[in-house]
Amino acid sequence: MPASTPVRPLLPEWVFDLFRLVALVEGVTTLLLFFVAMPVKYLLDDPSWVAVMGPVHGYAFLAYLVAMVAALAGRGWGLADWARTVLAAFLPFGTFLNEPFLRRRRGAASPTNAT
Fold first, then answer.
1. Distances (CA, A) of 20 to 2, 13, 26, 42, 84
2. Torsion 47-50-55-58 (CA) sign
3. Of the residues 33, 55, 104, 109, which has the maximum number of CB atoms within 10 A of its CB?
4. How far apart are CA 75 and CA 97, in angstroms?
5. HSE (CB half, 13 Å, CA atoms) of 9?
6. CA torsion, points 101, 75, 82, 22, in degrees to nearest 10?
7. What backbone torsions phi and psi does residue 25 show, to the nearest 5 degrees?
8. Residue 37 and residue 49 in contact, taking contact as beta carbons nearer than 8 Å
9. pTM over 0.90
10. What's the pLDDT at 111?
């Protein structure tokens, strides 16, 4: 495909915004699991927090992966961009650090959002 040919996403732009919201939720649940539920489990000997937060984070992680594929498919992103976005879900604070990248990429790809 020539560089001048615009890339057309498979789904509407709001799906990308939904993905960014899901990424935020996934990041928050990661932090709650790592920095609240797990310390309570090991320091206060109360595993009930992990029993609740673990599945919540698990579903958020799965939603992140599904939303990522739906939002990024057909946008012309390279392997490094996909790898960065997947890796962000595995690192504490990763989705937060990846958010400016997502915002820049969306703005660059959408003529209505370009300044």
1. 29, 11, 10, 32, 14
2. negative
3. 33
4. 21
5. 20
6. 70
7. -60, -45
8. yes
9. no
10. 53
